[in-house]
């Protein structure tokens, strides 16, 4: 391979890595924007913790658990190697990954993905989880659960052998986070005031819709790298197709959610529009490289409908998910994974069943893991802050700080 | 062409696309920052609508109206093709666009431009337009007017044949938006309280100058892609020249507006400084590839002066443009287009006249189109919200939401 | 060199330039976030002034003072050339910089660095400096001091001949800014209310921790370009290594500061976590291309500890640095520069001493320069605003504007 092509590929992958990193700013804005100002510092703290600790854990062992993973004759379930000691021979040459990138780029791109799963949980459990419990959960979930599941498919494990397809992580990233979010909000219970005495849900409005909106736009931007980089090279045809399907699904998701929510609630709800965009993005992620633009629009549009119905369902189940994380990441993550069997180059009954098995196996593993980790934490140190702390806000109690002291201390 | 060069070109174009997409975050921040908090949700909603619907319209027919446009022997006025059905033969190879990018990249880059015209209008009409009327206007203006005008030059139509030059859209994007903004604020009238009983304009301060400032910095960043990508390849000499002229014009525009506004008003006005930067950017856009750095500084500096004078002129005309969109996008858009005849590689009396004809023809078409669309909407459903809604804010009335409930509901 | 490689290299360098430009948004958010709302416009104004004027000064003469700098037989102290008149012969070809980038890209990348030094000072002197004095200081410091010091190493001057190593500017950018910040806060004195009558420091909380947090994340993102671009080509091995060491040091710096501050103050302080990330970034900057990932983690972790101790030290010295700029940029800048002698490919006693000499010489020159400039300004026009202005806020007094009028005018 010539040096120009190798270099151009690696440039693309490094910039995709930068864009995925920037998604953490998007998540931070989205999560604080959709929650109350009294818990802002706490949410930001959790997100900063996740990015830094998540990357260090992935450096310490996650990357090697997930890749290269499986030696000849291994079980295909666990794999270790040793990042940081020595690059593999030829790791910096085109031999490493068909000239798509270097070993260092590989690590950093994947490391930026790793923290995302825990970030998804962070939004769902906001405004009531104990910071200590959340930090321990993050370390175990990002450090172990995420790379184990990742290895099953992207590390060349059994899901990969079966033909399960998940291009950039509708299941492997978004649902992995979403399942834990679901378990966590079930174990935590709803925020004080979320459900009235009649059992009806009450809106608890987020404190900064501008930041939430910016968060979604930044996430969309980041998805250029999340999906575009998952091509694992800068192949002009495939990367540009992926960007087109990704953006069209995002746009269609937003419009779908806007239309359905306006019909259902007679109200032009900006947060539904925004979550519809995210739903479209998560929905296209499993098959962004397989779909035509028309199929991407359909997948996105349906994801937008699913968002509106999913949010209503979560409310019906008396679960409290302040930012809609379960709907966005889990439900449309499942939708996107199954859509690979319904649309695009791999569509077919066999593929659909394989996708379904993949969803169920990953779901079972994540739910069980999350139950064990969070259940143990609940038993040992508790998951939830005191009633007093919840009412007064986690910022003052856990961090001794106020996010906007010039505006709230008057 | 070798694969490395094609790939590097396409990487540049895809990242330019990402940067142009990010400009929508910049516009959103700028527009809400310079208006009142009670209309924030409404402005964000309009912007999110524009991005998603604009992209889908461009996918449905805009791209094909604008490109490839003109078959042999066609009239050179309308052109259709059929995006989403099939890529043109060779659309993913270096044959498509001299190796500059793929057909998918082409679509997405141009699609990100398309929504910009309506976004410009969004700022000017803020705080008083009916959301329904605005949405219908956007669909027609982005869906039809923008690609028709674009086809005249970039699609190889008659303006192109005449030798009209507009590198990245001082006229084709910014003025197209600016003319509609001018018509719209004329038809809408000024906000309640903007002009006193004595007819003197009163400042209605924007609610978040930090977001407005971030918006301008993000727009400047986005212009790296807007102008840099308009080279339509990653040609090292031309792309790097374009980035230099773009940034120097931005800097000089800011400084020009700062100096003149400080002299005129004895006050160091941050929003003038910011609008001066935008003026410099819009001003250099028509000829960013033709100018030397020295010429870019002159064009930018004059654009900065024009901004200060233009804002005063709009006030004098008793027009109410909350974010200065007409001045920034229309007046400096005209200046930038004419500057191609005064400075740089194409300077000359003949070119100047061609530029002037282009400005006038595009202006006439946009003004007439905008009058027809907005006039019809005014007659049928009205353009302006009720007085009560305007006073209480559009957020509560149109969206049932508050942008900052923790701070305003006390 | 083939066109593909040259183009890919130049694409990387142009995007690195864009990322460094984006750092100014990060600095702006960080600085206003950590200070009070009444001084927000003033800080933003200073930052916008620095970016625009800094770039124009670098265009007018800074670039030529710093590069190419030294003709055969020159003193190696000053160098002039003439940007904007003519590109050097071959400046747009691979001959210019081993195919790493064009002359235009070179100028713009270095120009984006130039403004950073003054931006660092901006944070430290916030909330009490006269805007006029600050602007004059900026012009002289960015226009003269920065390029002179830069020429000593990056322009091929005497520090370079001695073997002093500073990959991306722990000393040449961050300490240059940090020394001036130190001198400035010494000459200015502390803000009213920072030290009680008992001499004990009191926290003056920043008004928007969300913006401060976003600022740090944007700075981290920008560092992908700051360090990654300092490779001066897109060499796959070296650029990807640099991104890995940079991100790991950032993560470790955050975690280090978090751990030590939690132990020392029994409080999970988000701003310490954030400054720890910045400390890790500044700390790795001098040797980002020389370190293994393990060494990067160690350097970052120690930088995180240094941040916590440094902030305590500055307080002890009764200096008032609202954003911690001296600790972040000067103290960890020194640490990073010395670390090149302790870790990585160049480690050794000789290198350590060379690094130390470099730190001291640059420090002496910057301190003396800053004392002369700021001392003269203090004598002639004063450095500090009136007591009344400081209490009421600089925004109203210097700019006649309020950053958040809808929230503060009630």
UniProtKB/TrEMBL annotation, chains A, B, C:
GO terms for molecular function: ammonium channel activity. Residues 11-404 form the Ammonium transporter AmtB-like domain. It is found in: Cell membrane; Membrane. It comes from the Bacteria. InterPro entries: Ammonium/urea_transptr, Ammonium_transpt, Ammonium_transpt_CS, NH4_transpt_AmtB-like_dom. Gene3D superfamilies: Ammonium transporter AmtB like domains. It is a multi-pass membrane protein. One of its GO terms (biological process) is ammonium homeostasis. The chain crosses the membrane at residues 12-32, 44-61, 107-126, 133-155, 167-188, 209-226, 238-260, 272-290, 296-314, 326-344, 356-377. Keywords: Ammonia transport, Membrane, Transmembrane, Transmembrane helix, Transport. Pfam families: Ammonium_transp (PF00909). Coiled coil: none annotated. Belongs to the ammonia transporter channel (TC 1.A.11.2) family. This is Ammonium transporter. It comes from Euzebyella marina.
């Amino acid at each position: 391979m010539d040096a120009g092509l190798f270099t151009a590929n690696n440039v693309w992958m490094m910039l995709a890595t930068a864009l995925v990193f920037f998604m953490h700013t998007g998540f931070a804005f989205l999560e604080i924007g959709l929650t109350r100002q009294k818990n802002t510092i706490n949410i930001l703290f959790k997100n900063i913790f996740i990015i830094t600790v998540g990357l260090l854990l992935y450096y310490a062992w996650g990357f090697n658990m997930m890749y290269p993973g499986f030696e000849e004759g291994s079980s295909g379930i666990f794999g270790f190697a040793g990042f940081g000691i020595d690059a593999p021979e030829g790791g910096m040459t085109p031999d490493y990954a068909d000239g798509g990138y270097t070993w260092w780029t590989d690590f950093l791109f994947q490391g930026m993905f790793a923290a995302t799963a825990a970030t998804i949980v962070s939004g769902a459990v906001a405004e009531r989880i104990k910071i200590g419990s959340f930090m321990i959960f993050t370390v175990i979930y990002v450090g172990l659960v995420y790379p184990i599941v990742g290895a099953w498919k992207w590390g060349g494990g059994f899901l990969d052998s079966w033909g399960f397809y998940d291009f950039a992580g509708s299941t492997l990233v978004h649902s992995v986070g979403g399942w834990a979010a679901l378990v966590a909000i079930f174990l935590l219970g709803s925020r004080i005031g979320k459900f009235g005495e009649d059992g009806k849900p009450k809106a608890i409005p987020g404190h900064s819709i501008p930041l939430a909106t910016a968060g979604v736009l930044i996430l969309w931007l980041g998805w250029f790298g999340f999906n575009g980089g998952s091509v694992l090279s800068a192949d002009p045809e495939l990367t540009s197709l992926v960007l087109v399907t990704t953006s069209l699904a995002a746009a269609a998701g937003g419009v779908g959610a806007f239309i359905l929510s306006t019909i259902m609630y007679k109200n032009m709800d900006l947060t539904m529009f925004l979550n519809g965009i995210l739903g479209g993005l998560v929905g296209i992620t499993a098959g962004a490289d397989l779909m035509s633009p028309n199929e991407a629009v359909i997948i996105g549009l349906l994801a937008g409908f699913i968002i509106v119905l999913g949010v209503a369902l979560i409310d019906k189940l008396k679960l409290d998910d302040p930012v809609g994380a379960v709907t966005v990441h889990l439900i449309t993550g499942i939708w996107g994974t199954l859509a690979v069997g319904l649309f695009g180059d791999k569509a077919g009954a066999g593929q659909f069943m394989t996708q379904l098995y993949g969803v169920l196996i990953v779901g079972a593993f994540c739910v069980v893991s999350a139950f064990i980790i969070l259940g143990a934490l609940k038993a040992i140190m508790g998951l939830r802050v005191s009633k007093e702390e919840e009412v007064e806000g986690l910022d003052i109690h856990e961090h001794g700080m106020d996010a906007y002291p010039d505006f709230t201390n008057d």
